[in-house]
Amino acid sequence: MTVVEKKQTAERLSESLAEVQRLIELHHERDERAAAANVLQELEQRLQSLHPADIAYILEALPLDERLLVWERVKSQQDGDILLEVSDAVRETLIESMEPDELVAAARQLDTDELADLAGDLPRQVVYEVMGELDEAEREQLQSALSYPEGSIGALMDFELVKIRADVSCEVVLRYLRRFDELPHQTDKIFVLDAQEVLCGVLPLRSLLVADPEQMVSEVMATEVVSFQPEDEARDAALAFERYDLVSAPVVDERGALIGRLTVDEMVDVMREESDSEVLNLAGLKEEEDLFAPVVDSVKNRWSWLAINLCTAFVASRVIGAFEHSINQLVALAALMPIVAGIGGNSGNQTITMIVRALAMGQMQIGQAWRLWRKELGVSIINGLVWGGAIGLIAWALYGRLSLGLVMLAAMTLNLMLAATMGVLIPSLMQKLGRDPALGSSVLITACTDSGGFFIFLGLATLFLL
């Protein structure tokens, strides 16, 4: 999607949200029942014209009471698709507002792989009732998808696919495809199997359309195939989709038998969720939070890392307290020390963001941490000398002491070196311990650069200025 298309999509969503909010406000203002009903009817018609993903966007942007009002006006045929599109936190509020028979009706609309995505959030009785209505093959597919852990390929794979044998002609394949009312979505290739149902290649549709009808599939198909196993990590598959520009890819078991496929729309969702998770974890948030969640729920999501931050802030205050005598003798220290800590924190966050991204993209191995640390250390020394020198000159000009400017230069450089060290060390250590390298990294790096910056600057000032 181009920049212009993204801008147009954003504008369209904003206009739709504004229109829905206008109708809701109009509904609240109307006293007469007939007039209010007309507004609700107009709201319902507006919602009918929107894609489920757009409705999901609107629901996430509304307070709970308005969200439920809009949810009641959504056509029941769209319930399942919308529940798949909304965030986990908003989905929970919508499901809580629905009766069991409404949930069953919504689940019936979904394909087996989509039902597997939603099953973890539905009441168990609803899942059992829907499973009882599936045929034997669909039930086995659903049970298979539910047997894999969240975040694995098996939990995301799609069972709707087109498969053929290698010993038939392209003309036979074309006649076979014409028997379908429509091909499964995101079908860009046909999977070619041998007599044992083992994957032996893929036949891209573009190759099929230009091939001689008399040619055999075995002559046209591609034998080098990017495939996955159900136990593999979904985020690794998402990186492969991005790297190889895949639209779909086969999922095979340990003997190579085809059991499902992955599609690009699922991988886009995985990449978005991974990106959102990294941003939230950097800030120390446990999970995606409903923007209009109750106060208690928001407090539960945020308190733990705030408690850690409070402890680190107390440590930083104790560092300052230890140099209280020095600050009393030279008041300029109080004005200058936030600069040292602030620049160190920003630099550390730049380093840690780059390292976390590299780890998430699989571009960095733990063994490379030493080399990256040396590189970041070089960057920090240069930045420290340049910007520390600049702020040192300003301090000299303001307070008339060259020695104060030199202390600023040294403190800035040393704190940036500390920021570079911790920026590489924190995510690398968390990765080695099996934790998410982004979890609370921003909080930890800020704590280190604040306490370290205060200690370095005030310590140098005490040694050389007093």
Question: TL;DR of this structure?
Answer:
Its main location: membrane. Helix content is 67%, strand content 5%.
Outline, from the CA principal axes? Answer: globular
| DSSP helix fraction | 55-70%
Proportion of residues in extended strands: 5-15%
Order of helices and strands: HHHHHHHHHHEHEEHHHEEHHHHHHH
Oligomer: single chain
For the largest sheet, list the strands in their spatial order. Answer: 1-2-3
Query: How many distinct folded domains?
Result: 3
Poorly predicted runs are none
Mean pLDDT equals 87
CATH class membership of the largest domain: Mainly Alpha
**CATH fold annotation of the largest domain:** Tetracycline Repressor, domain 2
For the termini, the CA-CA separation is: 61 Å
CATH architecture of the largest domain: Orthogonal Bundle
Number of strands: 5
Number of contiguous helices: 21
Task: Say which CATH homologous superfamily of the largest domain is assigned.
Answer: SLC41 divalent cation transporters, integral membrane domain
Rg over CA atoms, rounded to whole Å, is 29 Å
Q: What does the main sheet amount to? A: 3 strands, mixed
Based on helices, strands and strand pairing, what is the structural class? mainly alpha
Please render the helix and strand layout as text:
Layout (H helix, E strand, L loop, with lengths): L2 H27 L3 H16 L3 H9 L3 H10 L5 H7 L2 H9 L3 H9 L3 H8 L4 H9 L3 H11 L16 E3 L4 H8 L11 E5 L5 E6 H6 L6 H4 L13 H11 L3 E5 L5 E6 H19 L12 H28 L1 H6 L2 H29 L8 H31 L2 H31 L8 H24 L2
Parallel strand pairs: 1-2
Antiparallel strand pairs: 2-3, 4-5
Helix pairs in contact: 1-2, 3-5, 7-9, 8-10, 14-15, 16-21, 18-19, 18-20, 18-21, 19-20, 20-21
